[in-house]
Amino acid sequence: MTKATILLVDDHPTLRQGLAQLLSLEDDLEVIAQASSGDTAISLAIKHKPNLILLDLNMKGLTGIETLISLRGAGVESKIVIFTVSDNKCDVLQAIRFNTDGYLLKDSEPEELIDKLRQALAGDFVISAPLTQILARSLRNDNKQSEPLDKLTPRELQNLKLIASGKSNKYIANKLDITESTVKVHVKNLLKKLGFKTRIEAALWAVEHKVSH
């Protein structure tokens, strides 16, 4: 089995060691390097090219956001997931603005964290459940009401509910017994009908309007 490689970036050694120990229990995940600062993280990321970087937000020296910007500027293509105690709306939106692949809280349950990391590695944007309402309110367009749901076909509505639950295209395809390419078509159509540019916006709007219920 090919393991997904992970770089841990946090200025608290005890937390890093705990995470490394947790991840070492998984057959498909491997911590290949650890960094206590943004500068070190950039060097290690360029050297090791990890599949995923788990990045603290509040560090001495370069902050998580500054490190994120520098990593992307250096051409690092790893999935980058912010891992922090901050549930501040501005921090979350800023991280998304600078092309992060996820935003997870440090009080996440171990099983949830592992699951979210696997989702991020598979190409999904991941976020801790408590933050969805914060983002939904921030991204909401007051002109968008529940009526647009009437424009969706039953199949598009099914896709939207599953997207709101954080499911990947592969999962949706298996769940609905359709191909991934068909899922992509449904997602493209529902985004157009609802007036959104990304599935993240659609998912957050759906959560706020309780479409997934």
UniProtKB/TrEMBL annotation:
CDD domains named in the record: LuxR_C_like (cd06170)
InterPro entries, per database record: CheY-like_superfamily, Sig_transdc_resp-reg_C-effctor, Sig_transdc_resp-reg_receiver, Tscrpt_reg_LuxR_C, WalR-like
Positions carrying 4-aspartylphosphate: D56
SMART domains, per the entry: HTH_LUXR, REC
Alphabetically ordered keywords of this record: DNA-binding, Phosphoprotein
Residue ranges occupied by any HTH luxR-type domain in the UniProt entry: 145-210
Domain Response regulatory: 5-121
Name of the protein this chain belongs to: Two-component system response regulator NarL
Organism in which the protein naturally occurs: Shewanella psychropiezotolerans
Gene that this sequence comes from: narL
